[in-house]
Input
Amino acid sequence: MTTRRWGAVAATAALALGLGACGSSDDGGGSGSGGGSNGIKIGIKFDQPGLGLKKGNDYTGMDVDVATYVAKQLGHEAGDIQWVQAPSAQRETLISTGQVDLVVATYSITDSRKEKVSFAGPYFVAGQDLLVRADDSSITGPDTLDGKKLCSVTGSTSAQKVKDKVPGVNLQEFGTYSECVAALVSNGVDALTTDDTILAGYAAQDQYKGKLKVVGQPFSEERYGIGLKKGDTALCQKVTDAIKKMIDDGEWQKIVDANLGPAGYKPPAGNPPTPDACS
Ligand code: GLU
Output
């Protein structure tokens, strides 16, 4: 009798604890509405292997790991993060409308974006390059794109830069880079241009191995920042401190090696960067 009674009490207590834990993880968890008491909503890419990739309920990549580290420093456990897809052209809007708290999505710091959002960072420096079919030796850099069909993404620095650099370029703009990769392998376009980090990730995918190659002549400097609401200097300072800590405690190197290493990507000079002051 006594044993059974204690068993019942324990079961009730466990149930209460279980419900409590469930409730709090739902607040900010992947499937919940997000932004609960301790939830945080973070915009990432969903289709960029090695950077931000969603596979089922699994999120991987350098940006996911950087975001998870920074969120932890801000007091949010991994389970409190709601991941939100942040395509290149939507990042400023997602931030300014409060649909996300942070954007960690191969997001270059630029003066024109700073008119709408604030940035902490940079936490990484990449360079714009070209991805072509492995058997194509005619494209060796931006000055060899005459008469070629090129693909990039709306709202990216990559599309803007190539339009500035190669006036009259035959540029197709999609909403995501994975759409460009599909067009490249099916001969719909001749090259894809964006950051070398992103291109290396696609070239290393099992289904594209031996079919695609990165040209390897970077022609820009892309300083990846963490986007946040314009003018939130207090948040910017906290995120900047977290980035500095991540670099100083060795976690930056681990994150870079684990996510970019498998694609054979070597961080260029300028890495790890020194984050800018928040203003
Ligand atoms: N880093 C560049 C940008 O922020 C290109 C990559 C991207 O579109 O995410 O526009």
